[in-house]
């Protein structure tokens, strides 16, 4: 019983350390600009770099941030799709008239992708490839694709930085939400 209490106390102390502020990296230790590192940093965690890539591969940071931003945007759209589809809000009509497949016949969750005909999956793949190569190229690291914030440009740098922080953090939450949803569907 005493050993159990000591184990619980050790676990509590260890978990409390997870919420302690992280040691701040010095600005001189990396060749990146501080402004690039500040985006997406949430207190009290600070810069999260468990593998030390900021020190060993600082030139790759910009690409990784662009990929994180793009995956976050896709995941935010996926969360909306999950919520809508799991509430059985569907289009009227047919997904594939030749296969007599209605939108309402597509099951919710991961099993729904298996019901989409191969030609439909090919169309989705080609559309995404067109977006990736033409309109939203992966080489455009700043994430600004010329559409603005709901159609208006943001001139104030503070407001833009705040909105970019919100976007990065919401994207991270959405990526975790989509992953959690997929795992839960497969487990249950």
UniProtKB/TrEMBL annotation:
Location of this chain's protein in the cell: Plastid, Chloroplast
| GO MF term list | chlorophyll binding
Ion transport: is it a keyword of this entry? no
Q: Which GO terms describe its cellular component?
A: chloroplast; light-harvesting complex; membrane
Q: Which GO terms describe its biological process?
A: photosynthesis, light harvesting
Known SUPFAM superfamilies for this protein? Answer: Chlorophyll a-b binding protein (SSF103511)
Print the keywords alphabetically.
Chlorophyll, Chloroplast, Chromophore, Light-harvesting polypeptide, Photosynthesis, Plastid, Signal
Q: Where does this chain mainly localize?
A: plastid
Where chlorophyll b is bound, by residue?
73, 133
Q: Which residues bind chlorophyll a?
A: 68, 71, 167, 170, 172
Question: Which residues are the signal sequence here?
Answer: 1-18
Q: Which InterPro entries match?
A: Chloro_AB-bd_pln, Chloroa_b-bind
User: What is the annotated role of this protein in its UniProt record?
Assistant: The light-harvesting complex (LHC) functions as a light receptor, it captures and delivers excitation energy to photosystems with which it is closely associated. Energy is transferred from the carotenoid and chlorophyll C (or B) to chlorophyll A and the photosynthetic reaction centers where it is used to synthesize ATP and reducing power.
- State the family named in the UniProt similarity comment for this chain: Belongs to the fucoxanthin chlorophyll protein family.
PANTHER family this protein is in?
Answer: CHLOROPHYLL A/B BINDING PROTEIN
What protein name does the entry list? Plastid light harvesting protein
Q: Which organism is it from?
A: Corethron hystrix
């Amino acid at each position: 019983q005493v050993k159990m209490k000591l184990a619980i106390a050790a676990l509590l102390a260890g978990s409390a350390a997870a919420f302690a502020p992280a040691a701040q990296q010095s600005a001189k230790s990396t060749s990146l600009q501080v402004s690039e590192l500040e985006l997406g940093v949430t207190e009290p965690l600070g810069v999260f770099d468990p593998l030390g890539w900021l020190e060993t591969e600082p030139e790759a940071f910009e690409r990784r941030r662009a990929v994180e931003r793009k995956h976050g945007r896709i995941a935010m759209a996926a969360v909306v799709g999950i919520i809508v589809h799991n509430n059985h809000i569907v289009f009227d009509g047919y997904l594939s008239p030749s296969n007599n497949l209605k939108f309402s016949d597509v099951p919710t969750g991961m099993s729904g992708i298996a019901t989409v005909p191969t030609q439909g999956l090919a169309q989705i793949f080609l559309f995404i490839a067109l977006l990736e190569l033409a309109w939203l190229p992966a080489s455009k690291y700043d994430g600004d694709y010329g559409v603005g914030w709901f159609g208006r440009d943001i001139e104030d740098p503070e407001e833009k930085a705040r909105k970019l922080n919100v976007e990065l953090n919401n994207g991270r939450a959405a990526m975790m939400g989509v992953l959690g949803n997929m795992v839960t569907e497969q487990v249950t």
